[in-house]
Amino acid sequence: MSRRRVLRAGAVRHLRPSRRAPGGPPRACVRPPVPSVPDCAPPGAVELLERAVAYAQSNLRLVTADDLERPTPCTRWRLGELLWHLDDSLAAMGEAAQTSSLTLVPTLAPVAGLDLVESIGQRTRGLLGHWHPPRGGGVAMGLRHLPREVVGAVGALEITLHAWDVGQALGSRRPIPPGLAADLWPVARRHITAADRPRRFASALTVQAGAGPADRLLAHAGRHG
């Protein structure tokens, strides 16, 4: 989640934009993205981050120096630019786990080439350590103050969507795991709103009846699954 995108200052009303913790609530079931859902405990932000990071790593490990100029589903960005954005998002997520106040402006200079891929790898490997054990309270970003749990869940959504973007750019087309997509669906419905379109997300797409959780999630985020 970039500091001005996931930690955005007005587009998401209850959140910024950017686990399964020991003793945390158990993940009882997978919820399909439909109005009628089982009565079960939703996964916490740390569990969502764990699963988002695992999915991201499966795509990021495929990136080579020759790939950085590839086009991505984010039409304004080549893969190298998307990876820089993801690097900043991961840095912001690491800070959000440990601080009560987060700057909206990136504090690190851009990294280039395979050094950028290594930087992202280090951040994904270290991110969950920052979020374990989970802390309560909130995070102030400019004039906004958001629950830390919300920040983590939205961060997991952004990591997942951009991991999918990376896979599409590489031609690997690794799908978002259905269970992860189903659990991120309520986050996406709540925090990707009309105020985000078309600047941050393209218009939502129509999906066929019977579409799976990943296709529904991607369509809501303006992406063709």
Description:
- With 225 residues, the protein is mainly α.
- The protein has one domain: Four Helix Bundle (Hemerythrin (Met), subunit A), CATH 1.20.120.
- It has helices at 45-60, 79-96, 113-131, 148-170, 178-191, 213-220; strands spanning 138-141, 144-147.
- A two-stranded antiparallel sheet has the order 1-2.
- α5 runs parallel beside α6 (213-220).
- It starts with 44 loop residues before the first helix and ends in a 5-residue tail after the last helix.
Query: Which residue ranges are poorly predicted, with pLDDT under 50 across at least 5 consecutive positions?
Result: 4-38
Helix and strand succession? HHHEEHHH
Number of domains: 1
Give the class-level CATH name.
Answer: Mainly Alpha
> Can you count the beta strands?
2
Binned strand content = under 5%
Q: How confident overall, as mean pLDDT?
A: 80
Q: What is the distance, rounded to the nearest whole angstrom, between the alpha carbons of the first and last residues? A: 21 Å
Oligomer designation: single chain
The helix tally amounts to 6
What is the topology, as strand order, of the major beta sheet?
1-2
User: In the CATH hierarchy, what is the superfamily?
Assistant: dinb family like domain
Largest sheet: 2 strands, antiparallel
Helix fraction bin: 40-55%
CATH architecture: Up-down Bundle
Task: Detail the topology: elements first, then pairings.
Blueprint: H1 45-60, H2 79-96, H3 113-131, E1 138-141, E2 144-147, H4 148-170, H5 178-191, H6 213-220
Antiparallel strand pairs: 1-2
Helix pairs in contact: 1-3, 1-4, 2-3, 2-4, 4-5, 5-6
